[in-house]
Design goal:
The protein is built from six helices and four strands. Helix 2 runs antiparallel to helix 6 and helix 3 crosses helix 6. A four-stranded parallel sheet has the order 1-2-3-4. The protein is α/β, with parallel strands linked by helices and 182 residues long. It starts with 10 loop residues before the first helix and ends in a 24-residue tail after the last helix.
Length: 182
Amino acid sequence: MQTNTEIGYNSKVEGDIVITRLDAALDWCRKNSLWPMPMGLACCAIELMAAGASRFDISRFGAEVMRFSPRQSDVMIVAGTVTYKMALAVKRIYDQMAEPKWVIAMGACASTGGMYRSYAVLQGVDGIIPVDVYVAGCPPRPEALLDALIKLQEKVAKEPVVSTLVVTSMFNKPAELQPVES
């Protein structure tokens, strides 16, 4: 007796169509394509570099494209001690980043000033820019940074995208555009 065994791809069962919500598809794309802007200010920057190496491989999470241009990145990773002298540069670079943008404070010094209780050290980078995820440690291990990246991805996936979009026509003048109400 001969049996009909299917091997490989069955187009009748799977088809060529993926059905999902637009919001879910955009969230998936956004959370898996975070481009970090590394702000390596002290010893935590070595651990940040190690997270990009082959042993820890930050590219598994879609964040391997380290951009040193604020206009091409959407996640700022502040790694290390932020002095008052450097705080203005950090704030300026954060302001130059396009929306939406997120911040990871990596290490005790970036989160709270660390062991430095002096007039020259900012006691937490959240005094000048909003921080989304804090990474504990002095210095934190690369695994801790990857865990923070996963937490940030979860946060990004929960943010609404479609409800914040404003659809405009090419025939409307900018003065006539009205925001879409949810």
